Amino acid sequence: MTKGSHGRLRNRNVMWLFNNRIRFLMGVGVLISLFVLAGKVSSIMGWHHHIYKLDSQERFTVLINTWRRPDLLKKSVQHYSFCPNVDAIRVVWSESKEPPSDTLFSVLLSSVKAASRKSTHNIKLKIDMHDEDNLNTRFKPLDDLATNGIFSVDDDVVVPCETLGLAFNVWSSAQDSMVGFVPRMHWLQSETQDRELPRYLYGGWWSVWWTGTYSMVLSKCAFFHRKYLDLYSNHMPGQIRDYVTQERNCEDIAMSFLVANATGGPPIWVKGKLFEIGTTGISSLKGHSKHRTACLNMFVDMYGHMPLVPSNVKAMDARSMWFW
Ligand SMILES: *[C@@H]1O[C@H](CO)[C@@H](O)[C@H](O)[C@H]1NC(C)=O
């Protein structure tokens, strides 16, 4: 081989490298322009990334169910009072013999006052005392409620304000439905024999996750209309409330039955993060699902039919979806 051909070869290699680098840079350039363009599509087309804000007149009440956990209650009130569209915070206090201490009350009040200063309106705080420690008390109708929408929540469940706002939007467009974040399902266990009612199994989170099917959202973290408080306490058959009192369980299933029977439709599950800040609760105890299954079948007998309606719908914020 001559020197010259070596040189040509080298030149060709250099050209090849050069071409590749050009191609690579062009590729990067195209990608960057695509990204820039994608970012501009909205403004070129005259579309707006509009953040839908509710009329500030539209608000809801946060109904916090608490029991002997002042630290959780403080955190909870502190969090929810700063969420937009909260009209009032009502605390279900089920031990009137031991009212909240002055220090606890003043801490709660100062959170609400601090939040009111940042808000367009005054956020109200009220502790509703109840004589009995009874699970039905969380659904007692409340005096001077100013809103139709109620967000019912346990003291150890924290839903970020943004997620809460999304669920309130969903509830606002379907005010008869229960709208929440903790879905559960009733599974048919055995078909009807003769004149007996079918038997059901309580389906926990894993069954919902696996099948994408649910028929209840739990009231430890859900929106519903205030009218259901009255229906639950004054119109639902008393034997259901008695059963809840005895079993110290299943008030949430009873509420799901009530709403399903009233509407003939399913609840709505909303996508969103939520944080459980307390120690693990009753649902992690052994035998929990057995109790829940027993409640389910007891309520079916009391209603004379199964009112729960399954659904596969999950509501989410369309702005957080990248493709479509
Ligand atoms: C279920 O709904 C029906 C029709 O609205 C009503 O008549 C009935 O009393 C309800 N059942 C219970 C147990 O609340």
Structure, explained:
By secondary structure, the protein is an alpha/beta fold. It has helices at 3-45, 70-81, 102-118, 161-172, 205-211, 227-235, 238-247, 251-263, 288-303; strands at residues 60-66, 86-93, 124-129, 149-154, 157-158, 179-180, 183-190, 199-203, 216-217, 221-225, 268-270, 275-276, 314-315. The strands form three sheets. It has an eight-stranded mixed beta sheet, with helices on both faces. It has a three-stranded antiparallel beta sheet with strand order 8-7-9. A two-stranded antiparallel ribbon has the order 5-12. The N and C termini lie far apart (61 Å). The site of 2-acetamido-2-deoxy-beta-D-glucopyranose has 4 residues, from loops. This is Glycosyl transferase 64 domain-containing protein.
Provide a compact summary of the structure:
The protein is α/β, with parallel strands linked by helices and 324 residues long.
Question: What's the domain count?
Answer: 1
Name the shape in a single word.
Answer: globular
Enumerate how many helices there are, as a single number: 9
Structural class: alpha/beta
Q: Which key phrases capture this entry?
A:
single chain; 324 residues; alpha/beta; Spore Coat Polysaccharide Biosynthesis Protein SpsA, Chain A; eight-stranded mixed β-sheet; three-stranded antiparallel β-sheet; 43% helix; binds 2-acetamido-2-deoxy-beta-D-glucopyranose; GT64; glycosyltransferase activity; transferase; GT64_dom
Topology:
Layout: H1 3-45, E1 60-66, H2 70-81, E2 86-93, H3 102-118, E3 124-129, E4 149-154, E5 157-158, H4 161-172, E6 179-180, E7 183-190, E8 199-203, H5 205-211, E9 216-217, E10 221-225, H6 227-235, H7 238-247, H8 251-263, E11 268-270, E12 275-276, H9 288-303, E13 314-315
This protein binds 2-acetamido-2-deoxy-beta-D-glucopyranose.
Pfam families: Glyco_transf_64
InterPro entries: GT64, GT64_dom, Nucleotide-diphossugar_trans
Family: Belongs to the glycosyltransferase 64 family.
